[in-house]
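User: Can you predict the 3D structure for this chain?
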Amino acid sequence: MNISKLFDLNGKSALVTGATGALGSTAARALAAAGAHVTIAGGNVEKLDALAKDIGTDKVTVIAERPSDEAAVDRIIAAAVKGGGGIDIVVPASGTAVVAPATEMSPETWDRVMDANVRQVWLLCRAAGAVMIEQGRGGSIVTISSVRARFATPAGTSAYGTSKSAVDMLTKSFATEWGKHNIRVNAIAPTVFRSELTGWLFEDNDRANEARKGVLSRIPLGRLAEPEDFAGAIIFLTSPASSIVTGEIMNIDGGFSAN
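Assistant: Here is the predicted structure, written as C-alpha cells:
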C-alpha cells in the first residue's frame, strides 16, 4: 500500500467557489498542493488574482463569478472544464452568515441566506454533477455545513442554521442519487473558525473574551478553529483515501458535537 498515493490529486481538476473567503482559499491552496489544477471563483477580482499568484498560475484558473444564478454557474463550470480538462472535485465554499433574532430578521434577509447557502449550492452541484456523470470517471463534492445545522443557539441563527440543515440533506441526497456514477458527496461541519465575519471573536477585549468563553465552554479541545484546520479533511474527502466514503457529514469542531 502506497500511503502517499492515497492522498495524491495529480491529474485532477478541482473547482472552488467562494475562493476568496477564509475556508475557500484554504481549500484551493490545499487542493493545489496535493497536485490538482484548481479553478477559483469569487466576486473579488483582486483577491482572486492574489490567491492565484500565491498558488502558482500553472495550477490555477481564475473566474470572477459567484454562483448566483444558472447563467453564472454555467460560466463557472465552463471555465473549470476548459482550464482543468473537466471537473473531478467541487468545493462550494461560497455562502453567507447572518446572526440576528428571528423577530428582528426581515424576510428579505432570510431569503438572502437561503439563496446563498442552499439554492446556489444546489445550482452549482447540479451542474457539476451533470458534467461528472457525462465524463464517466466519478468525482468528489465537499459541501460546507456547520455545527449549527444540528445545534441551535440563543444568539439568533434561525436562518443560518436552517440553511446548513438543508445543506446536510442536499449532501445526502446527491450522494444517494449519484453513487451509481461513483460520485461521492460529503460535507464538513466546522465550529467557529477565523474569518472576516468572526475575526472579532479572536480579539483581546471584554466583548470578545466573554463571547469566546461561552463558545469554548462547549469545545473539549479548548480553542476556536483556524481555516487551515479544515485542509486535511478536504484532501481526505476528495482523494482516493476516502473512496468508500459518501453521504457523510464530518464534524470538525474540536469535540463540540460530542459534548
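The two ends are 36 Å apart (CA to CA). Strands lie at 13-17, 37-41, 60-63, 89-92, 139-144, 183-190, 249-252.
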